[in-house]
Amino acid sequence: LVHYWLASESKREQFRRYLEKAGVLDSLTSVLVALYEETEKPNNALDFLKQHLGVAGQESADTEALQQELRDMRQRCELLAEENKDLKNRLQRYEPAQEDGAAE
């Protein structure tokens, strides 16, 4: 049991050093301190953390790009629907409706 505890502590210490070396602990600490020092706490603490860690900027850029793509695709869909309607109307002038041909 003692050996397991020592091995576990060693792994934890290695992981802590890894986080410290990568700057993760400093970043998290500074963001948490900033959240603590906020006079008016935000409604969503997780969004606050994401925003201050730089994650929200990436998400919002991706979101904006996707929203623009969606707007473009909707506009293209509308144009294609109009073209389709126009082509169907033209076709009606040259081909009688199916029901009319079947009735003869």
TrEMBL record:
Keywords: Coiled coil, Nucleus
Any GO molecular function: transcription coactivator activity
Compartments, record wording: Nucleus
Coiled-coil intervals, chain numbering: 63-90
UniProt xrefs under InterPro entries: AMY1
Keyword Nucleus: yes
GO CC terms in record: nucleus
Family in the record: Belongs to the AMY1 family.
Name of the featured protein: MYC binding protein
Species this protein is from: Oncorhynchus tshawytscha
Gene that this sequence comes from: POLR2D
